[in-house]
């Protein structure tokens, strides 16, 4: 019998099956359309006040996000890279939350204990996000409706072990041996394409994935030491950001009250119900949406800019690299946006999103201004 590690290596070296001409180009075009759809939905969501209609818009947003993920899965099955890798390492907890955001039933997923010193190397971030998203999607689809899915991560020697567990009936135990063989040596079968994608992504980086039974189904993802780096010191504690000392006034404190507590001392002014924060030339807004519970951190990047096909393509490319945020065009302006989950709000995540956005807005306005013209948002009052 060939050892598992050797089999995984052979899988990485094995060339993909021939792909019909135009399939890759079609998947890239479809992904670009999904990016445009997500941007349009962002614009509509921004102006919507009715909570029921907003919930429906979020459902459409999730469908568009899944469409984009399926396009990227098609590129993986075709043996193509979905896009350039990230430029920077990313903390493991942010990688897991990015995977959570790609799943339709994201509100059933709890990211619990995660070693906050662990980070994923930039070259593997996007693939690990997609791998985790596929496993989380399986966990929500094949477990009992309404049950919880938990995610934990810890060190395993020099490696890191990510565990995804559901508490429902899950996959029958008799199916697990065949599924685990598929995860080591995938064959594209119509009813298991999600796991084939997981196997392909894992094979690229020497990641080991194992399914087993406990109270429900458990997926174990072993990230090898070569993919791991040390997470930067808590970046939300640097500069002028205060040390997070968030304690809700009551267990059921309203989300907007929790957000105000976290951002105390940083709010510059309010406009249309949004909390405005100034940082250098950037203006960052924080908006609370109660249904579903979500906090949006966003900033105008470039104004007086026409929506063109090259602009949409560029925004889609940059969004693809961001992982935890997106760029879109609305009201003659390019916006950058980062969502923060409102359910079990974490102060550190909100403060980090604010800091990421302030740096992002300053970096992107120069880059996009050189390519497409328009006006830098910080120059409007000058």
Describe the structure.
With about 375 residues, this protein is of the alpha+beta class. Helices cover about 40% and strands about 25% of the residues. The protein is built from ten helices and 15 strands. It has helices spanning about 5-15, 25-45, 50-75, 90-100, 120-140, 175-185, 195-205, 255-260, 310-320, 345-370, and strands at about 90, 110-115, 120, 150-155, 160-165, 210-215, 215-225, 230, 270, 275-280, 280-290, 295-305, 325-330, 335-340, 375. Strands 9, 10, 11, 12, 13, 14 and 15 form a seven-stranded antiparallel beta sheet that branches. It has a five-stranded mixed beta sheet with strand order 2-4-5-7-6. Strands 1-3-8 form a three-stranded antiparallel beta sheet. Strand 6 and strand 7 (about 215-225) form a beta hairpin. Helix 2 (about 25-45) packs antiparallel against helix 3, helix 4 (about 90-100) crosses helix 5 and helix 5 (about 120-140) runs antiparallel to helix 7. The longest helix is centred in the N-terminal third of the chain and has 27 residues, at about 50-75. The radius of gyration is 21 Å and the shape is globular. GO terms for molecular function: protein histidine kinase activity. It catalyses: ATP + protein L-histidine = ADP + protein N-phospho-L-histidine. It is an enzyme of class 2 (transferase). Keywords: Kinase, Membrane, Phosphoprotein, Transferase, Transmembrane, Transmembrane helix.
């Amino acid at each position: 019998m060939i050892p598992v590690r050797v089999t995984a290596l052979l899988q990485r070296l094995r060339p993909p099956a021939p792909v019909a001409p135009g399939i890759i180009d079609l998947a890239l075009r479809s992904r670009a359309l999904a990016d445009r759809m997500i941007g349009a939905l962002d614009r509509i969501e921004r102006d919507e006040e009715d909570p029921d209609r907003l919930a429906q818009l979020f459902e459409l947003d999730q469908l568009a996000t899944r469409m984009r993920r399926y396009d990227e899965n098609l590129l993986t099955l075709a043996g193509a890279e979905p896009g350039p890798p990230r430029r920077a390492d990313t903390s493991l907890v942010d990688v897991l939350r990015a995977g959570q955001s790609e799943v339709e039933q994201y509100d059933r997923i709890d990211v619990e204990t995660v070693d906050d010193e662990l980070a994923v190397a930039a070259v593997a971030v996007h693939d690990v996000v997609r791998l985790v998203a596929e496993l989380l999607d399986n966990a929500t689809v094949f477990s009992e409706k309404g049950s919880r899915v938990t995610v934990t991560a810890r060190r395993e020697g020099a490696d890191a072990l990510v565990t995804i567990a559901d508490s429902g009936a899950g996959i029958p135990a008799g199916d697990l041996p065949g599924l685990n063989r598929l995860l080591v040596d995938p064959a594209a079968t119509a009813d298991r394409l999600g796991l084939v994608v997981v196997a392909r992504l894992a094979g690229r980086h020497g990641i080991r994935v194992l399914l087993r039974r406990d109270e429900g189904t458990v997926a174990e993802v072993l990230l090898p030491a070569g993919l791991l780096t040390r997470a930067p010191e808590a970046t939300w504690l640097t500069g002028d950001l205060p040390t997070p000392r968030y304690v809700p006034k009551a267990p059921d404190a309203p989300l907007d009250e929790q957000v105000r507590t976290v951002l105390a001392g940083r709010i510059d002014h309010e406009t249309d119900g949004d909390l405005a924060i100034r940082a250098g030339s950037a203006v960052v807004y924080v908006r609370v949406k109660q249904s579903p519970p979500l906090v949006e951190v966003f900033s105008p990047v470039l104004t007086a800019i026409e929506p063109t096909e090259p602009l949409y393509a560029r925004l889609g490319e940059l969004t693809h690299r961001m992982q935890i945020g997106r760029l879109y065009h609305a009201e003659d302006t390019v916006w950058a946006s980062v969502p923060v989950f409102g359910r079990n709000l974490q102060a550190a995540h909100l403060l980090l999103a604010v800091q990421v956005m302030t740096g992002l807005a300053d970096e992107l306005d120069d880059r996009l201004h050189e390519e497409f013209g328009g006006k830098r948002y910080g120059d409007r009052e000058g």
